[in-house]
Design brief:
The complex is a heterodimer of chains A (186) and B (213). With 186 residues, chain A is mainly alpha-helical. Chain A folds into two domains: 8-91, RNA polymerase sigma factor, region 2, helix turn helix motif (Rna Polymerase Sigma Factor, Chain: A, Orthogonal Bundle), CATH 1.10.1740; 119-181, Winged helix-like DNA-binding domain superfamily/Winged helix DNA-binding domain (Arc Repressor Mutant, subunit A, Orthogonal Bundle). Chain A is 66% helix and 0% strand. In chain A, helix 2 runs antiparallel to helix 3. Chain B is built from six helices and eleven strands. In chain B, the strands form three sheets. In chain B, strands 1-2-3-10-5-8 form a six-stranded antiparallel beta sheet, with helices on one face. In chain B, strands 7-6-9 form a three-stranded antiparallel beta sheet, with no helix packed on it. Chain B starts with 8 loop residues before the first helix and ends with a helix. In chain B, helix 1 (9-17) crosses helix 2 (22-34) and helix 2 (22-34) packs across helix 3 (36-54). In chain B, strand 2 and strand 3 form a beta hairpin. The chains are: A mainly alpha (186), B alpha+beta (213).
Chain lengths: 186, 213
């Protein structure tokens, strides 16, 4: 466990290898992501035992669904984040999670520009990390509360004693920074 | 389809982070079916979630946990089901709630031209379908909280503008309006409120209470 953490390109390649049932690649993903998924769930108030159970379920889902991973659409971290998020909603909040199948023919296509838009997620993750780290505190606090406390904007406003409009405009500014970081100038 | 009114980025963020409850998530996911721009915004917000996950303090997982996952890798897993074809006029996120056709919804009539069907209520937030024949509408009301209305078929207008399929109208407590369906196809909306509406007049007040608005 003293090896340096694998970079995002290596993690992305590992998910692709897992789709071909590569167990060594799975071990790499488990060692890297299971403790992080567990850490994420515990940040959200899940007990140690349940977080460990759900981290196992998340990594098992990685093994089973790896064929659905599309490195052109998301990084391994992002894809595994969405798996962990959905497992938590299902297992802990006991709610249904309305989701989209990105290949569903019912999805309306966007403009040509949006369809051409492809992000290099290997580099994008580094740029996003910098963008998130350099957001003004008042914006990064709200993004963090949304992801790591699962508080919707209305609850964040109440908790921070801010008008709803202020929270919304801070979210808009933060999202604009993310858009810039990902190289989309629109 | 060209969409002029999008959900606020705060709703897209709530959906991406998992902070949105089921009622709000249903509205966002159904809008995303029609809107590639908002799908791109959600993808960016989810990428921020991935970056936060990558940077989180890891908590050690036991060897036993790893062994038990390894032991399950060869278990037969349920096949991955993908939507292969277009079925009916109902957007995919709504199908688990009402099936493939708006005609099969057990509408509850409020008047001859206005009907609704409750879908899901979470943390005091209600999602319902509202079906209005041309010219019909919901009586003048204001709000105690926020209200989001996604147009699924037809169109409606109120004091703030016209809303067509795919559009989301967002109102805050201070907005008072009387949405009315336009001539043409029946207007079906997915409406989400996080507090009861405030109706003008005694009759709408009673009807509103009766139908849980």
């Amino acid at each position: 466990m003293t090896n340096p953490a694998p970079d995002s390109a290596r993690l992305n390649a590992a998910v692709v290898a897992v789709a071909a049932k590569d167990r060594a690649a799975f071990q790499l993903l488990f060692d890297h992501f299971a403790p992080r998924v567990k850490g994420y769930l515990m940040r959200l108030g899940t007990s140690n035992a349940q977080a460990e159970d759900l981290a196992q379920d998340a990594l098992l889902a990685v093994w089973r669904k790896a064929a659905l991973f599309d490195p052109a659409k998301a990084s391994a971290s992002t894809w595994i984040f969405t798996i962990a998020r959905n497992l938590r909603i299902d297992a802990i909040r006991r709610e249904r999670r309305p989701e989209l199948d990105p290949e569903d023919p019912a999805l309306q296509p966007g403009s040509a520009r949006a369809a051409d838009e492809s992000v290099d997620w290997g580099q994008a993750e580094d740029r996003l990390r910098v963008a998130l780290a350099t957001l003004p505190d008042e914006q990064s606090r709200i993004i963090e509360l949304s992801f790591l406390s699962e508080k919707p904007h209305s609850m964040i406003a109440r908790e921070l004693g801010l008008p709803l409009g202020t929270v919304k405009s801070r979210i808009r500014l933060a999202m604009a920074r993310l858009r810039l970081a990902l190289g989309d100038s629109t | 389809m060209s969409i002029h009114h999008h959900p606020g980025e705060e709703l897209l963020l709530n959906y991406a982070s998992g902070a949105a409850n089921e009622a709000v998530s249903l509205l966002v996911a159904t809008h995303l079916v029609a809107c590639a721009d908002c799908r791109a915004t959600v993808a960016r917000a989810e990428a921020a979630g991935g970056t936060l996950l990558a940077g989180i303090a890891p908590v050690a997982v036991s060897q036993r946990a790893y062994d038990s996952v390894l032991a399950r890798l060869d278990e037969p897993a349920a096949a991955i089901v993908r939507s292969a074809k277009l079925t009916g006029d109902v957007p995919p996120p709504l199908r688990p709630y009402i099936g493939d056709s708006f005609d099969a919804v057990p509408w509850r009539h409020i008047t001859g031209k206005l009907a609704h069907y409750p879908l899901v209520t979470r943390d005091g937030t209600r999602a319902r379908l509202i079906r209005a024949a041309p010219g019909a509408g919901v009586a003048t009301h204001s709000h105690r909280g926020e209200e989001w209305t996604l147009v699924l078929t037809g169109s409606f207008h109120d004091e703030t503008g016209t809303y067509a399929a795919g559009d989301v109208q967002s109102t805050t407590p201070e907005v008072k309006h009387r949405p009315t369906a336009d001539p043409g196809p029946v207007c079906i909306n997915l409406a989400v409120t996080d507090a009861p509406l405030v109706f003008d007049g005694w009759l709408p007040k009673i009807v509103g209470k009766l139908f849980g608005f």
